[in-house]
Amino acid sequence: MPYGETREKLITAYIEAREKLVGFSQLEHNWDTYGAPPISPMCIERAGKILNMLESVGEKAPTPVPTVDGMVALEWHSNGRDEEWEIFIEPANR
Which of 9, 13, 35, 77 could form an S-S bond across to 61 if both were Cys, CB 3.0 to 4.6 Å? Predict the structure, then answer.
């Protein structure tokens, strides 16, 4: 695959990841119907900074996921295999 296409896909994946993060700020109490709290704005901000760092080194974009305890997880799934990496971002006051 030509370099330009690879870079374009990477940029698109990071744009989508950031859009997901922004959407987490709209989640209200009970967003999962099981009483989950809203996602911490500090967690969203920290996850955004991590996305910026990862993109700057050309790393594959993770998928941001809201957690039921009000935090953010960044997940990488490998080509449909049962392999997963996760980073959980907590607010500073935890």
Answer: 13
* Residue listed under structure tokens 């698109």: 12
Average pLDDT, the chain: 86
Q: At what angle do helices 3-24 and 41-56 cross, to 10 degrees?
A: 170
Q: What is the DSSP letter of 71?
A: -
Q: What's the full length of the chain, in residues?
A: 94
pLDDT digits (tens, 9 = 90+) for 31-57: 999 999 999 999 999 999 999 999 999
Judge whether 28 and 38 are in contact, CB under 8 Å.
yes
